Amino acid sequence: MTPYTNQYARRRTFSSGKFFATVVWERSQTLEEQVQTTRQRSAVAGAVVAAVTASLIAAAVTTAPAQAAAGCRVTYQVASQWTGGFGANVTVTNLGDPIPSWRLAWSFAAGQRVGQLWNGTVRQSGALVEVDSASWNGRLGTGASAGFGFNGSWSGSNPVPTDFTLNGTPCTGTTVTTTTTTTTTPPVSDILSRTHTVGRVRATADTARYTWPGVYFESRFRGTGVGIVLNDADNDYDVQVDGTTVASLITPGRVTRWINGLTDAEHTVRLVKRSESPWAAGEFGGFLPAAGGEILAKPAARSRQVEFIGDSLTAGYGNLSTTRDCSATGGVDRNTNTDLAFGPLAARGLGADYQVNAHSGRGMVRNYNGGEPGTSFRTYYDRGLQNVAGDVWRNPDTWRPQLVVVGLGTNDFSTAINPGEPWTPDSLTAAYRTAYQGFLDKLRTQYGPGTVIVVSATNLFAATAEQVVKDRNARGDDRVRFWNYDNPGLDRLGCDWHFSGNDHRLIAGLLTDYIAALPLSW
Question: Which fold has domain 46-66+184-295?
Answer without folding.
Answer: Jelly Rolls (2.60.120)
